[in-house]
Amino acid sequence: MSKVKRIIEGPVDWFLYTVMGEKQRKFILNSINDKQKEKLKRLLLGKKDRQRQELKQIKFHLYNLGFIDQSLQELKNYMQNTDSPYFKRMAAWELVLWHANQYSEIDANKALQYMETVEDGETNTDQIRRIAIIKAELLDMIGQPAEGVTVIQKALENGAHPDLYLAMANLKSDLRERFEWINHAFAMYDLNEIEIDVDEEQVYDSLQTRGHIETRSNGPLVSVIIPAYNAEDGIQIAIESILSQSWTNLELLIVDDCSPDDTLNVIKAYEQKDSRVKVFQTPSNSGPYVARNIALQHAKGDFVTINDSDDWSHASKIEVQALHLMAHEQIIANTSEHARITEDMKLYRRGTPGKYIFPNMSSIMFRREPVLQKIGYWDSVRFAADGEFKRRLLKQFGTGAYVDLNTGPLSLPRQSVTSLTGSSAFGYNGFFMGVRKEYVESLEHYHHHAESLYYSYPMVNRPYPVPEPMWPEREEKTNGIRSFNIVIAADYRQMDDSEINVFNQLLDEYSHTKIGLVQVFHYDLNLKAKIEERVRNKVDGKHNHFIVYGEKIHTKYLIIIDPTTFSISQKYVPQITTDHLKAILTNKVDDEASDDVTHIKENLTNYFQSNVAWYAINHEVQQSLKMIPSESFGGVWDKGCINND
């Protein structure tokens, strides 16, 4: 059979990856059900697809699950061992991107070591351009901008591209020269050039659209919403860029989220000067989406759009998006593009590989009445609700009703230089991890089962649970630490019946109190990604909470079901201290695995700063635990063990 399979694989690989394009492959896979898809993958898609899936899983474990050291080593092994030049390049490319995204000279040098492999044999025009952009960026990081200029000049000989112009801009130290290159990119989209005052102390705040732009007063009213928090120093550029739009028939609704600084007075001054400006305030600090919802309640425009409080927008931005909606009645919402830029006026990729210009989800412009009628308001969480709102739009109105327009960079969001290397535990750098991963899984579970995707505002009852850092009204904490009586850590993606029994037993025993759940992961490239239904259905956000990376927790009891999840270091574990750490071994341990138990014990001590008491899930496992000292072994687990201290 394996010989037959090899005979089939060669032609199938050639047909799928040479004759067919990516869109055709996706069309075939989207046209069949899950069972047929799995069978097709196993029998027909061949060796190349299995290699592709393996590489995808290594990336998932690296970025989404936080197995950094292990996954980087896996990528190196994959690159060295594959007999496919294509996948050798792809593995090397992932290593380049990982090190490039660390934004350090040391990592830039590491990334450059893989560049020869990445470039070897590459013929795809788009990939060649992306490689050039990353290579130039890396050369700049190690103090060789002139070599970077040579790389971009060579790439431009093969064809002009706005991302190449922006890459060249980053290599120019003189701001005037840098903006000449930035304006080459704007010219490719037939947009008016932009300019700055190089003598200003805060150069970003002097951004403006250059030249005369014809204004347009006839057309639908557009409601522009700006949520603001602690924005006294940066909001002027956002407000003035909106009030200077070529589309003049607009109202600007600014909502202060109870800022402790002078934001409210700053925005009220604009309200006094321009009748189009309306100012509101949240009842308590709740995050930008509650602020947006308050503005949406008061909006009168046919179309609604967003502008963040420290983002500059090109004078044509609203006109471009509004005209598109006017010309395409079947479209419910569109977005424009942006390019993120630092305070020292350098373009920033934000995790996108070799690309500076990409869709700006926050620029969404939608038809107010049908959207409010069908899906209502944004989710009332503190962050990450743009993607959730988009998912509901697509489900309600269809994928064809939402369009990412190819506009060029109509916004230049301000990117703090200090945030380039130190990403927040709750932030987004091109992948979902920690709190955002849990949010996506929870909302997907709800969207799959819900009869209605309409969200009201105010949101009296949450439709599905989200982690505490996302709550508009946060818990009271002592020194930023949440308190629990019990926290249960496990890999909830795949639990056998005995593990589920222990889990349910603990939930029943502590049903009168708040229970914390921590998702930790096995390093297993074959394991499915999502938490299983038997666990997901128990999470209510009131009594049973998922705790996520970035939170600080103290608990009386920390129970770990199957501590082999801690055999390999993983980054995305919340900071937990505990009075009693109990680990329940769920599989037999042979003599060869005894060293693993010692290693797991060391890792548990490092993570939780506590001695561990070991338990066996049953007598069969107990008999295999010869290497655990009797004084730290509590016997076979039962519900009474929780109080055996």
Question: What attributes characterize this protein structure?
Answer:
645 residues, alpha/beta, Serine Threonine Protein Phosphatase 5, Tetratricopeptide repeat, Spore Coat Polysaccharide Biosynthesis Protein SpsA, Chain A, eleven-stranded mixed beta sheet, seven-stranded parallel beta sheet, 23 helices
Structure in a nutshell:
This protein is α/β, with parallel strands linked by helices and 645 residues long.
SSE layout and pairing:
Blueprint: H1 2-19, H2 22-30, H3 34-43, H4 46-63, H5 68-81, H6 85-100, H7 105-113, H8 115-119, H9 125-141, H10 145-157, H11 162-170, H12 175-187, E1 194-195, E2 208-209, E3 222-228, H13 235-243, E4 250-256, H14 263-273, E5 277-281, H15 288-298, E6 303-306, E7 311-313, H16 317-327, E8 333-338, E9 340-342, E10 347-348, E11 358-359, E12 365-367, H17 368-374, H18 385-397, E13 402-415, H19 434-449, E14 482-490, H20 497-509, E15 515-519, H21 533-536, E16 544-547, E17 552-561, E18 575-585, H22 594-608, E19 612-616, H23 619-622, E20 633-636
Helix pairs in contact: 1-4, 4-5, 4-6, 5-6, 6-7, 6-9, 7-9, 9-10, 9-11, 10-11, 11-12
Uncertain segments are 1-9
- The percent range for strand residues is 15-25%
Overall shape: it is globular
Largest sheet: 11 strands, mixed
Helical percentage? 40-55%
Class from helix and strand fractions: alpha/beta
Q: How many beta strands in the DSSP annotation?
A: 20
Number of helices: 23
CATH superfamily of the largest domain: Spore Coat Polysaccharide Biosynthesis Protein SpsA, Chain A
Count of folded domains: 4
The CA-CA distance between the termini, in Å, is 57 Å
* CATH C-level class of the largest domain: Alpha Beta
Mean pLDDT: 92
Just name the CATH architecture of the largest domain: Alpha-Beta Complex
Radius of gyration: 27 Å
CATH topology of the largest domain: Spore Coat Polysaccharide Biosynthesis Protein SpsA, Chain A
